[in-house]
Design brief:
Oligomer: single chain
CATH class of the largest domain: Alpha Beta
Helix content: 40-55%
CATH architecture of the largest domain: 2-Layer Sandwich
Shape: elongated
Radius of gyration: 26 Å
Largest sheet: 5 strands, mixed
Structural class: alpha/beta
Strand content: 15-25%
Distance between the termini: 55 Å
Order of helices and strands: EEEHEHEHHHHH
Number of strands: 5
Strand order of the largest sheet: 3-2-1-4-5
CATH superfamily of the largest domain: ATPase, nucleotide binding domain
Amino acid sequence: MKFIGIDVHKRIFTACVLDENEKVVGEIIDAETSEKGLDEFIEQYPPEDCRIVFENLGRAHFVFHYLWDRGYAVDVAHTGHGSMQEIANCNFKTDRIDAYKLALVCKDIWSGRKFIRRAHLSKDDVMRMKGLVRIHNECANIRDEMYLRILEYMSLHNIPEHPRYKDVKGQGYSQYLLDMKDPALSAMVNMMCSAI
């Protein structure tokens, strides 16, 4: 059985492979975090003969799904919890040392000696949906902030409210404010309207 620790970054990864006697039997340093880079490393180790652990950092989402879909037993650890604190609290840190320590943690986890808090990584379609919701929330926050700033600006500069429209966010009210040709007010109204 091989125990693999991978220190994953956005563009590169470093991996360390240990055998059951905790002897380093393989290592790769600064390989490209891509399908090609992972294939070049992992092709030497059949899925039924190895266990893999890495932290939930960088491109962990991509690496997890890529390896999982190929049948590898993969655990993604939350940083700073359980056994991961030993790695985080280390005084001397390099990618190589982190990969080695992750491989040791991997061996200890599979032998039942240590514990990690596992990260839940969603599928790509769920991640896209979450991204859409985050963008929607950010736009709503921008809209609400601009709404409050417009009201504050109108109050500060004695700009009269529209006699007929009540909602500053509405098209009629927005056009009324834009027709005043006030540069600051127009910028806020345009930002609010584009965020709606």
